[in-house]
Amino acid sequence: MPQKLTIVDYGMGNLNSVKRVLDRMRVDSIISSRPTDIANSGKIILPGVGHFGKAMHNLQELNLLDVLHEAVRVANKPILGICLGMQLMAKRSEEGNVEGLGWIDAEVIRFRVADKLKYKIPHMGWNQVSIKKNSPLMENISGLSEFYFVHSYRLKVNDESDILNETEYEETFPSAIERGNIFGVQYHPEKSHDAGIQLLKNFIKL
What we know:
With 206 residues, the chain is α/β, with parallel strands linked by helices. The chain has helices at residues 15-24, 35-39, 52-61, 65-74, 84-87, 193-205, and strands at residues 5-8, 29-32, 43-46, 79-82, 92-93, 98-99, 106-110, 123-128, 130-131, 146-151, 153-157, 163-169, 171-179, 182-185. The protein has six helices and 14 strands.
């Protein structure tokens, strides 16, 4: 299987920051919206910042839905969703009230906090993650590690075995998921310094 990594370009955000970090790590990666590049890739990163409904519309318009399903569900290629990219893996989102990719039994819901003075939405900045299960994605990452977050919506995961990390922000929410070859993180590893670099290295090694 080719080992090149494809960062999926569907018009939604932090592509170049991910690519710069991978370049510094000397990872053979490309940014592409071409189905053939995704089909021929060994690993896939699905990044994203923005609106869930718009993102699903873009994936459909670019004819990327079928090739992503084929790569992930049939060929079992490792995929890492980052921020919105992870949320797209859920069945549905309140943001746009549309269906997602459906790879994880989860919904995307808006953060609802009681103490709006203490807990600002969007949730923005550094926060600690709690590692909920053993995973190659978390190898050599401390259970006290902090990652960088920027989001107003969060996952509600129906199968707890899919939860890889949890984070406290007034309430406990899933901040990373894992099911087989499917990995997703709500935080931004490309902006999370040493812990984020280690996570990306772990993904590359899968």
